[in-house]
């Protein structure tokens, strides 16, 4: 009787889904990070001030850039999040590993895939900018190419201490939202929307402070074309988000799941 039921289930039931391969997961991270950088940095470079900063009659401004970063994460999570987890951010990968959501052995390969995707994204933005009106690409580079910064390179002139605090706190908040939205106890199907909107909110808070990182790869990818001054400050936007992610990863389970991480 047992063998008959088993045979019937195998014949009539749906075919079991195979887990994504390592190559598929890494390809998803490359694509998702590319989408985030191409969409977010591209919006900042091409559309934030249009036709130019002096006559910004059609530009999307801070609000548009914030929405661009949030929307790229939202659509990326729904497109390939079921394959790789939809990190697109080394800080998210670190926080997920610390919280027990990702095997530690996958961390370095995820980081490598994210770096590749981010650099492809910013490089394509630069290639397109070169084909713009005379001086467009050089002006974009002179303006920092949507890079992050502190002091004279902060949009609002915020100092190093303020930028570090903002990046740590906002990255920790982002990780708390991600870990909560992807919990087994969370409502199914809303994680992408929640994560995308939270990233939009984070950008609305911190674009004037640091031009918003909370993502080391986003910062590296832009700084490559932002020039040596921005590359000289990128360490802040690698270290601070990772610290914020570490804090959230360690704290999430004891605070919200009632057990130690």
UniProtKB/TrEMBL annotation:
SUPFAM superfamilies cross-referenced by the UniProt entry: Aquaporin-like
Chief place where the protein resides: membrane
UniProt-listed InterPro entries: Aquaporin-like, Aquaporin_transptr, MIP, MIP_CS
The keyword Transport belongs to this UniProt entry's keyword annotation: yes
Name of one Pfam family that matches: MIP
Presence of keyword Transport: yes
Membrane topology, from the record: Multi-pass membrane protein
Keywords associated with the record: Membrane, Transmembrane, Transmembrane helix, Transport
Family classification: Belongs to the MIP/aquaporin (TC 1.A.8) family.
Protein name (record): Aquaporin Z
Organism: Leifsonia kafniensis
């Amino acid at each position: 009787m047992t063998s008959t039921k088993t045979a019937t289930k195998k014949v009539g039931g749906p075919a079991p889904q195979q887990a994504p391969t390592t190559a598929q997961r890494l390809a998803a991270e490359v694509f998702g990070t590319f989408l985030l950088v191409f969409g977010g940095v591209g919006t900042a470079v091409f559309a934030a001030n249009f036709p130019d900063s002096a006559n910004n009659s059609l530009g999307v401004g801070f609000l548009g850039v914030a929405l661009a970063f949030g929307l790229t994460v939202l659509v990326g999570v729904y497109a390939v999040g079921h394959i790789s987890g939809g990190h697109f951010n080394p800080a998210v990968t670190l926080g997920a590993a610390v919280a027990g959501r990702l095997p530690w052995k996958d961390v370095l390969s995820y980081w490598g895939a994210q770096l590749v995707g981010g650099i492809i994204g910013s490089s394509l933005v630069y290639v397109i900018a070169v084909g713009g009106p005379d001086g467009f690409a050089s002006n974009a580079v002179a303006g920092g190419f949507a890079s992050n910064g502190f002091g004279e390179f902060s949009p609002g002139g915020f100092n190093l201490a303020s930028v570090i605090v903002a990046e740590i706190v906002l990255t920790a908040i982002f990780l708390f939202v991600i870990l909560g939205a992807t919990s087994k106890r969370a409502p199914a199907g809303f994680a992408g929307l929640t994560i995308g909107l939270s990233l939009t909110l984070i950008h609305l808070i911190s674009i004037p402070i640091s031009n918003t990182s909370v993502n080391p790869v986003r910062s590296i990818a832009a700084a490559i074309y932002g020039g040596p001054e921005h590359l000289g400050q990128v360490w802040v936007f690698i270290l601070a988000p990772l610290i914020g992610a570490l804090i959230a990863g360690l704290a999430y389970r004891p605070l919200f799941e009632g057990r130690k991480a």
